[in-house]
Amino acid sequence: MSEKTMPLWEVFIRARSGLAHKHVGSVHAVDAAMALAAARDVYTRRGEGLSIWVVPSAQITASDPADKEMLFEPTASKIYRHPTFYKVPDDVGNM
Amino acid sequence: MYTQGLLDAKDGPAGGEDAAQVARFEARVAAEDKVEPNDWMPEAYRRTLIRQISQHAHSEIVGMLPEGNWITRAPSLRRKAALLAKVQDEGGHGLYLYAAAETLGIAREEMVEQLLTGKAKYSSIFNYPTLSWADIGAIGWLVDGAAIMNQIPLCRCSYGPYARAMIRICKEESFHQRQGYEIMLTLCAGTAAQKAMAQDALDRWWWPSLMMFGPPDQDSQHSDKSIRWKIKRFSNDELRQKFVDATVPQGHHLGLRFPDADLRFDEATGHWRFGAIDWSEFRNVLAGNGPCNRQRMQQRRQAHDEGAWVREAAIAYGEKRRAREKTA
Q: How far is the first Cα of chain A from the last one, in angstroms, to the nearest whole number?
């Protein structure tokens, strides 16, 4: 196809106040305003959200899945970071 | 279903893939771990998904045409608003699916080109004409009913972006089937002529709807691998049987008869047994010789060509804005 292509944007929607924006998919658009308009049409036809973020896909820096073990494995052995590691007598009550 | 056209694909063994890596991948999938875009995956898994998701997207887009045919002639404002919303959903579903396929490394423009040049297929069902208003009821009831039967298990597909898109689609689609059945109910409670119109629509859409599930299991080339990779959860014949079991009582509730002399309830198994499907018709429609294949493709190409100036103008505007921002 000889046509120029439109950049890709990732779409995030806040479903209700108090919740974080959550990734829902992506759209193609030439600029941020049109990306927002497209995201509104494509991803919010049934009151799915109160707020939309669009982010150029090329601007996202992601960790490499191949580094998963190096990055996340070390926390598996650090069980002392969890409250259940510590013993408190039952008669002390909820803590 | 919407992905039934996977008949001409070749999934040869991929060269240069590490057997241990493939084994690790298959173990992950077997353990119900989801695969995400940047994870390593076998090339055949990637190709199968690109083909399936893009065919599914194309089916949503082409599926707008038979129903769009009736938007301006809907019998009331209520029906018109519902049909408009349904067709708009289908456009949206096509876009969710193109976005999911793009995460596998194919550009949307490339997929659209594959559709327009006839390289990619879409569901055979959209090559049948919508001759009367009752067809809009039959499509919602039967075609969307069959689609839902196929799509609910896809919500658990091993590929994360596809599964997430399917969850959104399934949530939105239950209205499609209900509005179709409501149209049928209204026609069947109407005059004799209206009921005859509903019967005629069922007569014409029943067999093509059963064909939506794809060829019988013994002829389906892709089922084994797709099931092992958890892209598919049930075989074509299993899904077809589930659909028949769910749909036949709904048709009887309407007071309609199914165009199948062999249809009977099997007390022993609790299933509705149906007659032989004419697979030569199915192959013929997939090969491009259905009643509307040429018209559908011509309309898609025309829409694409007539929209070119909008895409070009948007890109030129984006470039101008960026150039101004640089000099400002």
A: 64
Residue B153, φ and ψ in degrees, nearest 5:
-65, -25
**How many whole angstroms separate alpha carbon B234 and alpha carbon B226?**
10
Say what the pTM is.
0.91
The structure tokens listed for B102 are 């793009």
What integer pLDDT is reported at residue B250 of this predicted model? 98
pLDDT in tens, B131-155: 999 999 999 999 999 999 999 999 9
Residue A54 pairs in a beta bridge with A11
| B35 φ/ψ angles, rounded to the nearest 5 degrees | -95, 130
Q: Label residue B223 by pLDDT band (50, 70, 90).
A: low
Q: Report the distance separating Cα B65 and Cα B298, nearest Å.
A: 11
Q: Which of residues 41-80 of A touch B (CB under 8 A)?
A: 41-43, 45-46, 62, 64-66
CB pair distance less than 8 Å for A65 and B36: yes
| A interface test, pick of B36, B53, B95 with most A CB neighbours within 10 Å | B95
Give CA torsion, residues B71, B54, B107, B45, to 10 deg: 160
Cβ B248 vs Cβ B272: under 8 Å: yes
Averaged pLDDT score across all residues of chain B: 92
